[in-house]
Design a protein that fits this description.
The complex is a heterodimer of chains A (941) and B (183). Chain A is mostly helical. Chain B is globular, with a radius of gyration of 16 Å. The chains are: A mainly alpha (941), B alpha+beta (183). Chain B: InterPro entries: Acyl_CoA_acyltransferase, GNAT_dom, NatB_acetyltransferase_subunit.
Chain lengths: 941, 183
């Protein structure tokens, strides 16, 4: 190409880079007039189009470029992006395969063919390409690409177990055939090691690892050393490993806990091996000797390190604990002494509680000695060290509190004491900048958690309000404390103060990949609080923003897998693949998706576009094997060990939606969308572009219909009782309506003809020939040969559901239950009405009803609809009443009588009371207004 | 008691307790993956035996000829695990790898001039100020610490390949350069 052409194309690249897709497309169109055969311009235009979601147009150009079988590097590289955007990975392989065949000397094309195969887990084809490249270009790295592809195939869950060993043997042969030794790079060396480990070729591994160069690699490469340690253990070389670790600890001053574990494992290797039969007395006494040696060793380390490093001290604790577990020491005196010593040395460190927690489950006599030791400590607030000791004493004491001391009242008293500690120590952080965390924060968290425990055992909401007050106060002093905010998010959702929950969540500035692990805090069952029906898009927007990370993953992660191959960082590749898979198939991703759908149907018009697109998407979701990446550990937990954790205590409606919840809601919605949609399987096949996601093989055996009908008890366990009612109701409704939908759905040919008309005429659908539409059909509704199914009476449960929900609702309102519970029932009733509306949408067409003689059915629909609307209106008026009662002077004053209020500033208490009350009022009102809107929209449907 | 182990891509699912911190940036996926796909041995994690992450370091190797060196891009420890020598352990691991494996001449890092605690800590590890970079953290604007808040110290520590200590100097605090001279 001429340099003039290059000059003209450059701005198009720039435009695409900066996301100016439209100008890029215009520029392409203009230039294509001058260079109509330029594949590069076509590819660039196709890229712009796919990014603007103009899929059909992009497909056309894409096919044109593919047909030219071009080998032009720039075109091919742009095409990888186009094809990825269209999900056409199979075409990508074919494209590079062709190009590489035409230019077998082009290394880059070979590499791209290899990557395209890796991307689609075509291990075998990838191996062949790597093999070919190794022969052609004589570069060792292609041999290692081949080796890794073999290992990836061996580790693939679809590979039969007997193949695994054969594949590893093949990989081993490849390694040995390499003209250069594997130790030239740590990553090749590691690949070699894991093959030897799998095949248990320990002699070869030993030679490699004990060589000078092997030792050098392990000293700088943590990952190689890790595999070395595993191999040593597999070989049963516990003692050698222990001695080596001792040398590292003393000579190299290595304080990696893994080294200490090696010493500990060596000490107990003779008594704790899983293959050991009966442990003889001789073995026991030998082990006791080892223990005393290890004790001496760790004591020296602990004394030498002093307060600089706590590894020696903790190794002593662990040694004692293991001695007890193995029955080699009978009394706990030594353990207790060590724990006291540990507290005396490191009691002023924040990690003291977490460090000692594994050793705190003491038998009664030791426990009372330990408790009185803690009680004998004097508490002072003169400096941060003393304060930290106080915090540790409170946490350590609390951890072992017996049930008898945990009544709501005593927990409440305790909470107030924690708050007093907090207030006393507060002065220590006076001079800190606002960006710093206060050293007293944990005392406020303790107070908050004790109040939550009071609430959980008594059900009295005043304790939840108290917890909120304490934590809100702590937040005024420690503005950036994320643990405090997370605790508050949980409390506010329980209280139905949804806008405050969102406010705190947003203040944490959750970004990027954190959305996947943290968005459950705000989006789990979020449709309960959404007033999307009124046009308030707060929650739907949050769903979309939290889901951006999945798009980034699809677009970016694969690129780094190929980069890791190019840079020969083989250790990273399996990790990257796991990472990509865990994000792509993230449970949270699809829980958010379902919540979004639930909100979307409440504020968008129920029309074919929405129904069809959600149907297709949810069906993809339904085939995924999900991973749960959600982070629940992030919530601090200082509850006594006899109590459920703070996380468990504060889950909305007492449970966390997981795989089963997702499965059931997907089944309900896929079925509802299927019935409402004109797309049957054959039509969908023709209209969809791109590859289908690979289905797990066991799903192939059961039909979609069967899978949708399946109801497993473990799935039901994740639902609240109200959600169960809803799911059962939807199932009965679906069963009733199915025959009428199946009979009246237009035939595929008609649907396709309509679709072809809709997409611009210039882009005919792939493989579609428009059939002649007969004139006899009226408005596209043709009469079928067989009679319409006889109209059956509506199952009683369909209409009764709304009565049942009214009763549930009223009893909750009367018993002054928390708004979240009231809203849960109201939202599910509204949701049922929307699912019902969707299911009856098709029968709004008068000609259709007339042709199929379904007038009686429509009559029944009208009755149910009237009843549902009546119920919703009634609920709305109650919601309005409840919300009126929220923000009154009286309701705010209640806060002044809370257990904590005397300790806090009067204005502060009133201000928080106002905020909570207002937020609850807004949530209740919003839900009610949404219901009214929906009623009026669908009243005459 | 902390385990020192390599940073893995899947650690991004569990680093919240460290990254929900105003001074620890959470980047896009490509940032972490590009480090791991090039310098995995310069990225490591300290982990509690419970599996909870305590802190991590991300580093790279860069520069030409006698400027070839290891660079600390991010070093962070969760608040509850501070003052336990975790940073020191991670830094000495990074120095070891920069020295033995990458054969670098020195290791360097950037730190806010106002961040006395960190500067003291790095000095105790053997680092010294090589130069002051004006407006390196310009995006935040001049904060409470005035110019010190947005200027950075480029701190360095020579490795075994630089026995003459040519990569450091005594009067580094007075050597002032602008941000575009260093990036």
């Amino acid at each position: 190409m001429s340099s003039a052409f290059d000059r003209q194309v450059r701005p198009i690249y720039d435009a695409l880079d900066s996301g100016s897709n439209k100008p890029a497309i215009i520029a392409c169109t203009k230039l294509l007039k001058k260079y109509p055969k330029s594949t590069l311009l076509m590819a660039l235009k196709a890229l712009g189009l796919v990014r603007l979601q103009k899929v059909e147009e992009s497909m056309m150009l894409c096919d044109e470029v593919l047909a030219t079988k071009t080998t032009d590097d720039s075109t091919l590289s742009i095409m990888t992006h186009v094809l990825r955007g269209l999900g056409r990975f199979t075409d990508m392989i074919a494209m590079f395969d062709d190009a590489f065949k035409r230019q077998p000397h082009n290394e880059e094309l070979g590499a791209q063919t290899f990557f395209a195969n890796i991307r689609t887990t075509n291990w075998k084809a990838a191996q062949q390409v790597a093999n070919k490249m190794h022969k052609q270009f004589q570069e060792d790295r292609y041999l290692y690409w081949n080796i890794l592809a073999v290992i990836l195939q061996a580790n693939d869950s679809t590979t039969p177990p007997n193949m695994r060993n054969l594949l590893y043997k093949l990989a081993h042969r490849h390694v040995l055939s390499s003209p250069t030794p594997s130790y030239l790079s740590a990553d090749r060396f590691h690949l070699h090691l894991i093959i030897l480990q799998e095949l248990q070729l320990f002699d070869e591994a030993h030679t490699l690892l004990e060589s000078e160069v092997g030792k050098a690699i392990c000293s700088t490469s943590l990952v190689c050393n890790h595999t070395r340690r595993d191999i040593w253990r597999l070989r049963g070389l516990w003692e050698e490993e222990g001695e080596r670790a001792q040398r590292n600890i003393t000579e190299r001053r290595d304080r990696n806990w893994l080294e200490f574990l090696s010493v500990l494992d060596a000490t107990f290797s003779t008594v704790s091996s899983p293959h050991q039969q009966e442990v003889t007395e001789a073995v026991k006494s030998e082990c006791i000797e080892c223990i005393s040696k290890a004790r001496q060793f760790f004591t020296e380390i602990a004394e030498g390190d002093g307060r600089k490093d706590r590894s020696g001290f903790l190794a002593l604790l662990e040694l004692e604990k293991r001695s007890i577990t193995n029955g080699l020491v009978s009394d706990q005196t030594e353990l207790l002494t060590l724990m006291k010593r540990y507290y005396n040395t490191f009691g002023d460190k924040a990690c003291c509680f977490e460090d000692t927690r594994p050793y705190l489950e003491l038998p009664d006599d030791s426990l009372s000695a330990w408790t009185s030791f803690l009680e004998s400590q004097t508490v002072s607030y003169v400096d941060v060290s003393e304060l930290q000791r106080c915090i540790n004493i409170r946490k350590l004491t609390r951890y072992n509190l017996p049930e008898s001391q945990l009544s709501p009242e005593s927990e409440s008293t305790r909470a107030v004491e924690y708050l007093s500690d907090y207030l006393e120590g507060l002065h220590l952080g006076n001079s800190l900048p606002v960006t710093e965390l206060q050293p007293v924060d944990d005392l406020a968290i303790l107070a908050g958690q004790a109040f939550v425990n009071s609430w959980k055992t008594s059900g009295d909401v005043k304790y939840l309000f108290s917890a909120a007050l304490v934590l809100e106060f702590a937040l005024t002093k420690s503005r950036l404390s994320f643990p405090i905010r997370l605790l508050l998010v949980r409390i506010y959702r329980l209280l139905g103060a949804s806008s405050l929950a969102i406010e705190h969540y947003r203040a944490m500035h959750v970004k990027q990949v954190q959305n996947d692990t943290l968005s459950h805090f705000i989006l789990s069952r979020a449709s309960t609080f959404s007033s999307a029906a009124t046009g308030d898009l707060t929650y739907p927007t949050e769903c979309i923003e939290a889901s951006q990370i999945y798009i980034s993953n699809t677009q970016e992660t694969a690129e780094f897998i190929t980069r890791a191959f190019s840079a020969e960082k083989y250790t990273q590749i399996p990790d990257f693949m796991t990472f990509e898979d865990r994000l792509e198939n993230s449970l949270q991703r699809d829980l958010v998706k379902v919540e979004h759908v639930r909100m979307r149907i409440s504020h968008e018009h129920l029309e074919p576009n929405l129904i069809d697109s959600e149907l297709v998407e949810l069906k993809f979701v339904f085939d995924r094997v999900h991973h749960d990446n959600r982070d629940f550990e992030i919530l601090p937990n200082y509850q006594p060990r006899s109590q459920p954790s703070y996380n468990e205590q504060t889950l909305l409606f007492g449970s966390s939606p997981s795989y089963g919840w997702l499965g059931l809601f997907l089944k309900v919605y896929i079925r509802a969308f299927q019935q409402a949609s004109d797309l049957d399987e054959s039509v969908e096949e023709k209209l969809l572009v791109g590859d289908r996601p690979i289905k797990p093989s066991d799903l192939e055996k059961i039909s979609l219909k069967e899978r949708l009908a399946e109801r497993k008890p473990e799935e039901y366990n994740e639902l609240t009782s109200d959600e169960r009612l809803f799911v059962d109701w939807a199932t009965i409704l679906g069963d009733w309506l199915e025959p009428y939908h199946d009979h009246t759905r237009p035939p595929p040919a008609v649907v396709l003809a309509e679709a072809a008309k809709q997409t611009e005429k210039a882009y005919p659908l792939k493989g579609h020939v428009t059939p002649p539409v007969s004139d006899s059909a009226s408005n596209g509704h043709s009469k079928k040969e067989e009679e319409a199914p006889a109209v059956k009476k509506a199952p009683e449960a369909v209409a009764n559901f709304f009565d049942e929900m009214t009763q549930r609702f009223k009893s909750l309102v009367e018993s002054q239950s928390p708004p979240s519970e009231i809203l849960h029932v109201a939202a599910l009733t509204q949701e049922a009405f929307l699912v019902f509306t969707m299911g009856t949408l098709r029968f709004r067409s008068a000609p259709l009803v007339k042709i199929h003689k379904l007038g009686a059915l429509v009559q029944m629909f009208n009755e149910i609809r009237t009843k549902a609307i009546c119920v919703l209106r009634d609920m709305q008026s109650h919601l309005a009443q409840v919300s009126e009662g929220e923000n009154t002077v009286e309701s705010r004053k209640q806060f002044l009588d809370l257990p904590v209020s005397s300790k806090l500033d009067h204005d502060f208490v009133i201000n928080i009371a106002k905020k909570i009350r207002e937020s609850r009022k807004k949530t209740l009102e919003g839900a009610g207004k949404g219901m009214l809107k929906i009623c009026s929209t669908y009243e005459h449907a | 008691m902390s385990v020192l182990r390599p940073f893995k891509a899947t650690d991004l699912f569990k680093f919240n307790n460290i990254n929900l911190d105003v001074w620890t940036e959470t980047y896009g996926l490509s940032f972490y993956l590009s480090y791991l796909s090039r310098w995995p041995d310069l990225c490591c994690v300290q982990e509690a035996p419970s599996g909870r992450m305590m802190g991590y370091v991300l580093g790279k190797a860069e520069g030409v000829s006698n400027e070839w060196h290891g660079h600390v891009t991010a070093l962070t420890v969760a608040p509850e695990y501070r003052r336990l020598s975790l940073a020191r352990n991670m830094m000495s691991r990074l120095e070891l790898v920069s020295d033995d494996l990458y054969k670098g001449f020195f290791v360097d890092l950037y730190v806010r001039c106002a961040n006395y605690v960190a500067i003291n800590m790095y000095e105790s590890f053997g680092y010294s100020v090589y130069r002051r970079v004006r407006e390196y953290y310009g995006n935040l604007g001049v904060g409470k610490g005035g110019r010190d808040e947005e200027d950075a110290f480029d701190m360095r520590k020579p490795l075994s390949r630089d026995p003459q200590r040519r990569s450091v100097r005594l009067n580094g605090r007075d050597m002032i350069v602008s941000a575009h001279d260093v990036s």
